[in-house]
Amino acid sequence: MLKLLLSLILTGTLALPVFAAENLSFDQLLNQLTRVEQEIPVAPVAAQASDRAADGRYWVTVKAADKHARTRLLEAGFDIVEIEKGSVSGFAGPDLLGLLSSKSFGVVSKVSMADYAARAKDFPSQDAIYHNYQETYDLLKQLAAANPDIASLFSIGKTVEGRDIWCLRINSSVKGDGPSSKPGAFFMGNLHAREHLTTEVSVLLAAWLLEHRNDADVKKYISTLDIYIAPMANPDGSEFDIKTGSYQYYRKNMAKNAGGSRGVDLNRNFDSWWCESGASTYPGSDTYCGPKAFSEVESQNIKRFFEARRNLKTHITYHSYASEILYPWGGNDADVPEEKDKKAFIKIATEMGKLTNYEPRKSSDMYVATGDSADWAYAATGVLAFTFELEGRGFYPGAAIVKGAVERNIKAAVYLLSVTDNPYKVI
Fold first, then answer.
1. What is the DSSP track for 198-245?
2. How many domains in the chain?
3. Which is the catalytic residue, given 298, 389, 391, 407?
């Protein structure tokens, strides 16, 4: 993003005041995202469609009467993106499209990726208005350097392609990956590669907290809590999704699978009813669960992160897009067995729903999907883990959506911090 701003200023395309990167405030970061998007000439999407057309995928609408039908479609390997009454839509390659037809799932329509991209009004011309991997790291580093008494940056581990998964920690007494007895909260974005809005919500949450560090409530949370923010949990996939200058609608990590396909769906790779309902055993599928639970270094890193921090009490993993706040279980139709946990999940999700205008509900009410990170985090460590499906009508909604999404989700995150010391006080 900062490279784009500098280029536009130097060429005269955009007249903005010049700020030193390290002095950018939260408001400046947020407003630049919106203003740049409004002033950059947008290239026609149709001119960018050839890369995606070459992969042979289609945008497909399939009949699905209820969550059980949606779960069966996931197991077949269908990448459900949108849910409507009586149907779902998503991406499918030729092999999967043939399978869906042969099993009488009821294919309503199909559109080639070239045609889909050409008509998608929400497809941006370029990704530079968002933070790519390097820009995300640079901003996190700047935030930590500007607040050395309370902020530090460390890697929770490397990806399959060797990138660090960076995490900003806000703690008034402990730095880096040292242990803490303070109640902890963990915010994580971009587990699915194409969900770039989740990175923006996460990294701007960090910027907001540090800029408002002297507000009475924020100051209290910083002094009494252990706060972690990892904006990009799947940097390999995120970088692949944008590397050509045209989005690839890519979801998974960059693992090399037997048979030549690539990628595992990291949100099907956790050891929570692994690869049962709502996950695919077909490596080419977007919902491929991997050869075994925790087969992927990215999910292993997240596992170790949770297990090493038994002080964690609350967690949000950001996804997009559906405007929903989900809580366990996602991999099972049953409610969580502990009544106090169930009540806390419902109460906290409801309150955060009021702040974001998102719908709170149990994750499996949408469809059953096993191997989910939030399910595993709750089952394995007891943390109250929520999945936020951010707002929008597409994976690539442009910059105009960022300001509202960030502001609403900061309110929800601050509310979660307010209960992190004892989540059960809400009941």
1. HHHHHHHHHHHHHHTTTSHHHHHHHHH-EEEEES-S-HHHHHHHHTTS
2. 3
3. 389
